[in-house]
Amino acid sequence: MADTVLFEFLHSEMVAELWAHEPDPGPGGQKMSLSVLEGMGFRVGQALGERLPRETLAFREELDVLKFLCKDLWVAVFQKQMDSLRTNHQGTYVLQDNSFPLLVRMASGLQYVEEAPKFLAFTCGLLRGTLSTLGIKSLVTTSVAALPASKFQVVIQRP
Amino acid sequence: MADTVLFEFLHSEMVAELWAHEPDPGPGGQKMSLSVLEGMGFRVGQALGERLPRETLAFREELDVLKFLCKDLWVAVFQKQMDSLRTNHQGTYVLQDNSFPLLVRMASGLQYVEEAPKFLAFTCGLLRGTLSTLGIKSLVTTSVAALPASKFQVVIQRP
Asked: Keyword Calcium, does the record have it (chains A, B) (predicted)?
């Protein structure tokens, strides 16, 4: 239904708008737009984190929280689950989505890989914001090897 | 569920972001941000218009198209129907939502009425964009008398 794609359409418009009015099209300006998007994602993630039905889940371990992101958060936002979750058991987690919805509409091809960060920044923030609401400070980065597969690396920041 | 509020959260962030970086906080700058939001709404409306299940409906009359906006479009975006639709039968339609979701979270009170246009511009564009996909050129304006009730006035542009 339309509400499934509403978020995707709005997200594309947001990306287009931020890049259209970019005062500095060089790496500095690009970085600023990415951090604006990441910040928006962070605040949306914080707000969503308060809404998701986490009462049903007892978060005994950090891994439970990450599983919650891969399942509940991903379903709420993208109507699908994350494809895999790996960890080194030392606070680093790699979440992989083999067909990340915000990249699916991009034509695949190596030449588009450098455009991918624009379409991932908001979601990095979303993960960081949701984790923050759940009491976990983190750094979230991303990598794309073959579109539309995406990896999100979450590194937990210990106090 | 969270996906219902995702659009609302993202919309708030978009409004906040556009006003945070407003180069000119006077009426001119305000007007530019409103038109940026309206333009984003227009393009999202165009895209949504192509997706909504309009095959089920035979649009024999203009009024059918307006009813489609009040029902199908509103449910897809806001999970509720518009509260009333009136027309002068000369191409002007007034669509009223007694509890417009994007204004519900604002505290009610006369002092907030002047903030309301920011939260209505995207939706004016959304209506105009959906109508455009359905082959109707229009002008959409809005008025708020008592928050969170909102009126959208659609004036059809005849060729």
From this structure: no
Residues A10, B51: C-beta atoms closer than 8 Å:
no
ipTM computed for the complex: 0.81
3-state helix, strand, coil in chain B (%, to 5): 60, 15, 30
Distance from CA of A54 to the nearest CA of B (A): 12
Domain ranges, residue A48: 4-156
- Whether residue A5 and residue B47 make contact (CB cut-off 8 A), yes or no, is yes
Reference B18, options B40, B46, B44; nearest CA is: B40
Tokens found for residue B49: 């218009």
CA dihedral B5→A22→A125→A153, nearest 10 degrees, is 140
Q: What is the CATH number of the domain that holds B27?
A: 3.30.1380.20
For chain A, what is the domain count?
1
Interface residues of B toward A, Cβ cutoff 8 Å, are 1-7, 9-11, 13-14, 17, 36, 40, 43-44, 47-48, 51-52, 73, 76-77, 79
3-state secondary structure of B119: helix
